[in-house]
Amino acid sequence: MIELDRLAQIRIFADLPQDRLAWLSDRVSEFSIAAGDVVLREGDMATSLTILLDGELVATQSAGGEHDVERYVRPEAFGTPCVMASIPYPVTLTATRDCRLARLPEAAFRELFVSCGSFSQAVARVMSDWLTALETAALNRSRLAALGKLAAGLAHEMNNPASALTSGLAYVRRELDALEASALALGRHAVSKEMLDRLGALVARGAAETAGPVCQSERESRLADWLAARGVSQPWRVAPALAARGVAPDDLAPLADELSPAQLDAAIGWIARVLDLRCVVDDAAQGAQRIFDIVAAMKSYSFMDQGPQQEIDLHDGIDNTLMVMTHETQRGIAITRAYDRSLPRIQAYGSELNQVWTSIVENAIEAMDGQGTLAIRTRRDGDDAVVEIADNGPGIPPDALEHVFEPFYTSKYALHAHGPSLGLGLHIAYRIVVNRHGGTIGARSDANGTVFRVTLPLAGRRAEAHENGRLAGPVL
Ligand SMILES: Nc1ncnc2c1ncn2[C@@H]1O[C@H](COP(=O)(O)OP(=O)(O)OP(=O)(O)O)[C@@H](O)[C@H]1O
Ligand SMILES: [Mg+2]
């Protein structure tokens, strides 16, 4: 017979009166297993409660590669939610030392559940903790997946400007030597001070001008022919840099009249190098600016520099969100904005609202399969700010529409590269809008597309807003 005080150490039995503990002890069957043995296996259906009396068990899970979930050394009962809800074990339990265990058959478990109030309360507490743990794990997984996706998109966005910057700087380093040689050549051929000033002026004018791509190759070849006719070395090499900055034969003709062929060669070489380098440096600066812009948008998207609640302009939040999602929208989504700029700033959790826009926009992009129109409208409606995000995707069927804000409701069962959809995007959005800001969120949809409408009180969170509001959202 199992010691009653041992059973009383187990959480779900802790409040049982002595006679119930004795009843229980009569119905459990004790058994032993050796280190390394599996006690119960992930995916098997539960037909009894498994009780650890002495020894050590480790729980492992196969999702995401076999990994340890938890280790148990104190008396503990396993399988309460599985027996209650008739669902398979979520983990495998293996003995890491020799163990003394016991088994309570399902029938006895259910009998105790219906006849003993303190036991049913304890089971209810276990179930509630289990659901909370499950939801927390799913939320964390969903946040991580969203973060991973965002980071991958941003990395991709930064890749082009970053590599332009790196290769531009490498080019500049190489060409600086050539520039020095060109400058020395000017001195060697005794180009006068007055002529150097004129060359400088030509470069300054060229630097301020961009000729644009139209007819560039025609201008290049005309200039290259002109330079070749005057004996300038490597005309095909210098002509592109000069033509790109609007330098034409007419600008160079007065120089050619006054300089010897060797001086002209040195002068053209120098001008072309300076203009070329300026061009490359301008491109690199543009790349750096683009990286700076992305980082700035990312910082304000996540409100990295600020406290959790701030006075925000809703439009900035929406625009920052669209900016960090450029990677997903740029392939085929046209974005139209109809913003009511007279909307006052509102007191809100800025980064959380950005998560709301992200979830809605992400769903819209997925629904349109990357091709379509995303229309964003803002306006004032009494004491509320209204944001509407519309897509012209296939729409949400009426019977699905009433479930979209429920946790784990999803129609996307196919595996994405970043993992399966959890059906949490709109549920989290609902909690942020309704419970955190006292606003409303709803959707209407037909075969022409879907509109999500978010309203937020202009005067800040309404008094009745609370964290544990109704979870399913209204349908407009
Ligand atoms: N704009 C839309 N067009 C069509 N269906 C939509 C749209 N927005 C949401 N849905 C439907 O609502 C469901 C729930 O959306 P939700 O964002 O909560 O979950 P999910 O996108 O499936 O998964 P997750 O966001 O967790 O990756 C979606 O699976 C989809 O069926
Ligand atoms: Mg989603």
From TrEMBL:
InterPro entries: cNMP-bd_dom (IPR000595), cNMP-bd_dom_sf (IPR018490), HATPase_C_sf (IPR036890), HATPase_dom (IPR003594), His_kinase_dom (IPR005467), HisK_dim/P_dom (IPR003661), RmlC-like_jellyroll (IPR014710), Sig_transdc_His_kin-like_C (IPR004358). The keyword Cell membrane does not apply. Residues 288-460 form the Histidine kinase domain. GO terms for molecular function: phosphorelay sensor kinase activity. Its EC number is 2.7.13.3. It catalyses: ATP + protein L-histidine = ADP + protein N-phospho-L-histidine. Residues 12-113 form the Cyclic nucleotide-binding domain. The keyword Metal-binding does not apply. Transmembrane segments: none annotated. Keywords: Kinase, Phosphoprotein, Transferase. This is histidine kinase.
